Amino acid sequence: MAIGHLLAATALKTVGIVGSTLWIIPLILASLTFINYNQLDPEAPIINQKTLYTEYDFVVVGGGSAGAVVASRLSEIPDWKVLLLEAGGDENEISDVPSLAAYLQLSKLDWAYKTEYTGRACLGMKNGQCNWPRGKVLGGSSVLNYMLYVRGHRNDYDHWEALEDNRNPYLAKTPYHGTGGLLTVQESPWRSPLVVAFVEAGMENGYPNRDINGADQAGFMIAQGTIRRGQRCSTAKAFLRPVKLRKNIHTALNAHVTKVLINPTNMRAYGVEFFRNGHRQVVMARKEVILAAGAINTPQILMLSGIGPQKELHKHNIPVLRNLPVGRNLQDHVGMGGLTFRIDRPVSIVQDRFQPFPMTMQYILNEKGPMTTLGGVEGLAFVDTKYGNRSWPDIQFHMAPASVNSDAGARVRKVLGLTDELYNAVYKPIANQDVYTIMPLLLRPRSRGWVKLRSKNPFDAPIINANYFHHPFDIKILVEGAKIAVKLSEAKSFKKFGSRVHLIPFPNCEKFPFGSDKYWECHIRTISMTIYHPVGTCKMGPDWDEEAVVDPRLRVYGIAGLRVIDASIMPTIPSGNTNAPTIMVGEKGADLVKEDWLTNYSK
């Protein structure tokens, strides 16, 4: 993941441009992006509606990976008036650049959440807390993420509908991909030779080079992502910009929703309260309020509205309208960060090696070069440990041609929140040297966390407890993933680069023999990385399921006119990156709404 921070720092450190003149590169990006919009991309930025109606048919809360899809699809019915409320602003020229994904973290586009200290994970981060980036911007986390397009395993779903526009010919012609859709999926036009070695290493270890979004998942491939002509293709760009001129859809930015308005007599949602530019506003919903604010903000809004665990609401003196297990069942893909392999050939991403101005111009003028890389992740793989099986892998790998040391500590350690002690001891000695990383991540965690209110103040960040490694089996599987990653690094394809594991031990793990199971466990607990995939906090399930918040049509139990359509409804986390499945939830959820309100609606 480090490559994104690295290329950001490189691009924004253009030769001789420092201090007060740093604005030149964003200005160039803005100017030429504007030209590209008019010449190549007809979907210019959306219209931020200043004056709103007092009532809409549907009010969609949250313009992220699911919400943008829902609002767009509902506005296909010309008789329906749709309002989309987004707490953040619009995308910018920097967020369009794939390689700068990590640079957006801790910016104004990020809610910048942190997890609670547990003592079991994130021990190498300041205060033992993991940073949890979440998109506070139109397009949501599809604007901050690494754009990786992974559907998950067929065993994860009965049926989740997908719509895409795949522009890799060798995949587009298969039964598992399509063309002409709104969401564009491609490989990055640039890659290092290390990702080829990664795929070959997988083949040496008995795994095929295959489309992991096809019939079978186990295998290795060069990563695909939601990019278009070298730029990020967020859900805002894919689903909202093309429909911005429709008369029946309004989008309000910087509109922070604080409460769903519910009539306690008939238990029906009839509108929402939100703050915009410091002013409280209310808007009514004739048919439904649809929450699509994500696995953190959706449960927060529900609880602030009186829907949630009775004990939790009483603690904050919030009247209980419906006692439901909101905020529970939190799941995330936790990964082992910082696993670094050194090499002797200059083929990785090292900040001091790149010439920033030529690299930036190559991207702007030709839509090629290192700045098109998917946040730095070049390779993806799905493997099985001794606890899993080939038919349903339990470990995913992200491979990147850089690591924590590649920018000499300028940015990566800050965004990860690493302590100075850890960075200086382990990564500073190899600053700016050639390396690559393979990050194992746990696909189906058994541990469950939760989201709770910090207070009844809607502007206070909620309490997030990821509860990583509460179940002892989770750490055991990741340790096996670490050992497989090391074995991959020893393959012939990597050995030609002089590949070997970085041997400086973590200071807090020195009591264990380096490379032992106990050592890898300590490493994993020290740099425990979120893969930015929180789901499950408003679980979908049948009415007899005591953990369910919404029914199979995504309607909140006991509250009429209120639906949740986002990653929070997932009962279990999909086996892979969650952006594509969340977009699928948006597509399917919009269909359900149409089916419920249009008797003659047909797919």
Automatic annotation (TrEMBL):
Domain Glucose-methanol-choline oxidoreductase N-terminal: 135-158, 294-308
Transmembrane residue ranges: 12-35
InterPro entries: FAD/NAD-bd_sf (IPR036188), GMC_OxRdtase (IPR012132), GMC_OxRdtase_N (IPR000172), GMC_OxRtase_C (IPR007867)
Keyword annotations of the record: FAD, Flavoprotein, Membrane, Transmembrane, Transmembrane helix
Cofactor(s) the protein requires to work: FAD
MF-aspect GO terms: flavin adenine dinucleotide binding; oxidoreductase activity, acting on CH-OH group of donors
Residues annotated to bind FAD: 137, 257
Pfam families: GMC_oxred_C, GMC_oxred_N
PANTHER family in the record: FI02019P, GLUCOSE-METHANOL-CHOLINE GMC OXIDOREDUCTASE
Family label: Belongs to the GMC oxidoreductase family.
Name listed for the protein in its UniProt record: Glucose-methanol-choline oxidoreductase N-terminal domain-containing protein
Organism: Ceutorhynchus assimilis (cabbage seed weevil)
